[in-house]
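dude i think i finally got it to work??
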Amino acid sequence: GFQWLVAQVGQIPKDKPIFLWGSIPCTGGTPWARYNLRRYPDTFPARLRMLRTQWRRMTYNFYRMVDLVRKRRGDWALEWPSRCEYWQSPQVLDFLRRQKSQVYEATATGCAFNLRAKYGKEKGRKMNKAWHVKSSISNVAEFLDRPCTCPSNYVHAKAEGQNTVITGCYTPEFVAAVHRMYVAHIVTKNAPPITK
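look at this
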C-alpha cells in the first residue's frame, strides 16, 4: 500500500534522483467504457462504478507520491491514452494546476514504438494507439512525441478483443525512450551553470 511506497522512497539515498511514473489503469475512462455503458445498461454501470472507485484511490495515492517525490527534488510523469476521459476529470485538472513547476506533455503513437497485435487475424500488424504523457520533465516531447510514420495505405490492427490489453503494455522501444529521456534530463539538471 501507500505506506510501503513511502518507506521505499525513504530508503533512496538523498543524493540519488527519483523519477515517479504513473501508469494507472484507464479502463473506466476509455471510449470502450462509454460503448459498454450503452450496450449493457443493466450490468455495466456497477462495473464502471467499481473501476472508477479503484481509479480514484490509485490516482489520489499517485498525487501523494508526487508531493513526496517533489520534496526530494524528484520528477514525475503520468500516462493515459489521449482519448481517456480521466484527463478532463476535475481531480486530474486540479492536480496539474497545483504543480509549482511547468507541466510538459507528449503524445507517443504506439506504431512508432513497434506496438503490434498479438492475437487474431491482425497478429503482427502495428497498432495506432496514442499514449499521452504529462510530466515535470521538460524534454518529454523530444524523446516521446512521435507521430505515426506508417504509409498512408497501411491498415493498423484494431485495439479490440484480446489485443485491447496489449495497448496498456509498453513496448521495449517505448521503455528505452523513457530511460533515454530521463538520463538526458538528469545530465542537464546536474550540469554546472554556464559562465562567461
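The beta strands are 19-22, 75-81, 104-109, 130-135.
im so relieved honestly
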